[in-house]
Design brief:
With 153 residues, this protein is of the alpha/beta class. The protein has five helices and six strands. A six-stranded mixed β-sheet has the order 1-4-3-5-2-6. The radius of gyration is 14 Å and the shape is globular.
C-alpha cells in the first residue's frame, strides 16, 4: 500500500500540537462509477472550493491508493468547529453512503489502524455525524462511520 504526497499548498498550523485523537471520515460526493485520478480529484475540488481545494489530510481512491494531501499538523477546513482538532480522511464515492470499494475499505482500515498503533486510542466519526447528528440518526441511508469503525476495531 503506497502513500503519495500530493503537495504542500496550504499553510502549516499547530506546530508542536499533540497528535489529534479524532479522525473524521468524508465521502468525496463523486459518482460511484466514476474512477478518478488524484489529479482529477484535486482539479474537481479546486473548481468547487475557493482557497484550499483539498481540505483533507488523506484521500483514498477507488483502487485503494492512499494519497497524503496535507501534513498531519495542518488544520484543514473540513468539518466546521472540529477541523482544528482532527485529522480528515476522504474516500472517493457517494454522499453520506458507504460506497467504498473493497480496496478502499481495506486501505481505510489499514490507515486507521496504523494511527491507532502509533498514537493509541482514536475516535473515528463521519463528518455527517458531527455536523448533522439528528439527520444521520433519523434517516437512511446515511453512513454512520462510528458504527462501521466499531465493527472493524
Amino acid at each position: 500500500m503506497l502513500t503519495y504526497n500530493v503537495g504542500e499548498n496550504s499553510q502549516e498550523a499547530g506546530k508542536g500540537r499533540d497528535m489529534k485523537k479524532l479522525i473524521v471520515i468524508h465521502s468525496m460526493e463523486t459518482p460511484d462509477d466514476e474512477v478518478m485520478t488524484i489529479d482529477e480529484i484535486v482539479e474537481k475540488r479546486s473548481e468547487e472550493r475557493k482557497g484550499d481545494p483539498m481540505p483533507y489530510h488523506y484521500v483514498i481512491d477507488q483502487r485503494g491508493q492512499i494519497f497524503k494531501t496535507k501534513r498531519d499538523k495542518e488544520v484543514c477546513g473540513h468539518c466546521g468547529r472540529w477541523s482544528g482538532d482532527s485529522l480528515s480522511v476522504a474516500f472517493v464515492g457517494g454522499m453520506y453512503r458507504n460506497t467504498m470499494t473493497a480496496e478502499q475499505e481495506k486501505a481505510m482500515v489499514f490507515l486507521l489502524k496504523e494511527y491507532r498503533k502509533r498514537f493509541g486510542e482514536i475516535e473515528v466519526r463521519g463528518c455527517n455525524e458531527l455536523m448533522y447528528p439528528e439527520e444521520v440518526m433519523a434517516h437512511e441511508p446515511y453512513f454512520v462511520v462510528s458504527e462501521w469503525w466499531n465493527e472493524r476495531e
